[in-house]
Design brief:
By secondary structure, the chain is of the alpha/beta class. Helix content is 39%, strand content 25%. The strands form three sheets. A six-stranded mixed beta sheet has the order 10-9-8-13-11-12, with helices on both faces. Strands 2-1-6-7 form a four-stranded parallel beta sheet, with helices on both faces. A three-stranded antiparallel beta sheet has the order 4-3-5, with no helix packed on it.
């Protein structure tokens, strides 16, 4: 049985993964005001997007893909027996609903899984499904591997300010971390796909130490790691080094997700 995967543009993929004939990416879009619309990770480089974010008086809004975009992706994979769809957290975007609506409009069997994550977290989940597919597993085994990975994936990220989460309306339960004390540095996590507070510390050094303390047990358990950042590669690499993660992977977070956490943010997903 042949199996294909569809995901959205907020999932971090390597160039090799993007080139696979059994993977399709359906892009989200973002808007600066009413006149400027861009396709995520296509129309602007990350550097161009974040420069625009800093300079624009309009805070960008994001849009889920239309149902038709998923229908087109599914139909382009009609040679496959079944399609597994992995989307950004349904709490953060309506993308999963577009994917599910489209699944009812095509003949090929489609199963949609909400990763309850994004970017490097979603990447780890997708890779677990790919490993099953590449190993000759069944569609049910690939779907089950993805669902198990969703439950086991932890994401933590450090931000210099909650300004961007507040502007975007994606701050979730991290609202309680707001404070007026000097140099407050929040650490956030995802719980069931929603942004939650993990810890609030004062200063970058304590923020880094708090991340190391939380994630060290994950290293001892031999879990997989993927580090992400927005113009903060040095911080992400420092975290990997302090954790002792060998052969660490790093990626820059794209605009759709990045506009919510802002430049200078960095984090890690572990599975």
């Amino acid at each position: 049985m042949s199996i294909a995967i569809v995901t959205d543009s907020t999932t971090t993929l390597t160039p090799e993964e993007q080139a696979r004939p059994d993977i399709r990416v359906v892009p989200l879009t973002f808007h600066f005001g009413a006149e400027e619309t861009y396709v995520d990770k296509v129309d602007l480089s990350n550097a161009e997007f974040y420069q625009r974010l800093k300079e624009s008086s309009d805070f960008p809004t994001t849009s889920q893909p239309p149902v038709g975009a998923f229908v087109e992706a599914y139909r382009s994979l009609s040679a496959y027996d079944s399609i597994l769809v992995l989307t950004i957290s349904g709490v953060l975007s309506g993308t999963v609903e577009s994917a599910r609506s489209a699944a009812r409009m095509v003949d090929v069997p489609v199963e949609v899984v909400d990763t309850k994550s994004a970017e490097f977290g979603a990447a780890l989940i997708l890779r677990r499904a790919l490993a099953v597919i590449d190993g000759g597993g069944t569609f049910e085994e690939a779907r089950r591997a993805a669902e198990q990975a969703v439950r086991r994936t932890d994401v933590y990220f450090a931000v210099g300010t909650l300004e961007y989460l507040a502007k975007s309306g994606r701050i979730g339960r991290a609202q309680k971390l707001f404070g007026s004390a000097l140099d407050i540095r929040p650490i956030l996590t995802l719980v069931d796909g929603e942004v939650h507070p993990h810890k609030r510390v004062r200063g970058r050094k304590r923020q880094m130490s708090a991340l190391v303390e939380r994630l060290s047990p994950c290293v001892a358990e031999g879990r997989d790691f993927y580090f992400g950042h927005i113009d903060a590669e040095a911080a992400a690499r420092e975290l990997a080094e302090r954790l002792g993660v060998q052969n660490a992977e790093f990626s820059e977070i794209g605009g759709v997700v990045g506009c919510h956490v802002g430049p200078g943010a960095f984090g890690v997903a572990c599975l």
